Amino acid sequence: MSADILKxxxxxxxxxxxxxxxxxxxxxxxxxxxxxxxxxxxxPTLVRIIKLYDLSLDYMLKGDEQYMKxxxxxxxxxxxxxxxxxxxxxxIVGLTVGLAPLLWLPFVKSDEQSKWIGVFIMxxxxxxxxxxxxxxxxxxxxxxxxxFVPKSSGVGLTINPNHPLGKLxxxxxxxxxxxxxxxxxxxxx
Length: 189
Fold this sequence. Notes:
mainly alpha, two-stranded antiparallel ribbon, 8 helices, 2 strands, 68% helix, elongated
């Protein structure tokens, strides 16, 4: 997308950067950055620019490899966010299902019932490990240098699943959880 086209068309229409910014719901500096080739508008904003300036998409994008690279990058980001949404939903469902039995604990009459509620909760928590691993792996964007990384949500650090030692730690934690579940099941009351 040519910055010169944007600047020329805006001036032909007799509009200021401030007016364009107000019409597009962006900052004036953003319009300036587009006109000076410092940044590019996202696709929805580009569509609004085309309508406002009465231009064709083909005319705006013809021969602009840099903008096309930005568009591809934006689409990858959108698809990544869609993937993250289903992971978030699965984690919420798993957490809800896993913790729901805690509501019945006050009504439990025997140790056997308590044991099976505990087993159920442990199975749900263990089943959430792969989902948490995928969420964190996506969040770390392939960073394999640091063993500890900021949490994807909340404050603190967590183990990087992209780091070779981090992968091993995730596997060991999962195996420990499975071992604990097996011990809970086979241990007599």
